[in-house]
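Fold description:
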Amino acid sequence: MKHLMINLKTNIMKEFIGKQVIVRANSAGVFFGTLKSKEGDSVVLTKARKIWYWDGACSVEQLAVDGTSKPDQCKFTVVVDNIGIEKVLQTIPCTKKAINSLTEVAVWKQ
């Protein structure tokens, strides 16, 4: 049964490859980018931003579905070409509505 669960998780994650996703990691935080690969509990994202702070959504799930209703209140980092993230807890594919909203958030930097 455990083997079946691992295969099911692997097959589901393969469907997410190439899609824009929200990733929540154990200690690294929340990220938005395109899922390039997944190995165990590690992922590689391309064209990724860390979502350092958000408002206008109550959860990462809502961010993935609706995006943010308050983009001016959000703090998203610059876009990096590639990033590896370990200890991933959630990977959620984004809707077109969310992608449009999240890509419009201005870069937060000092």
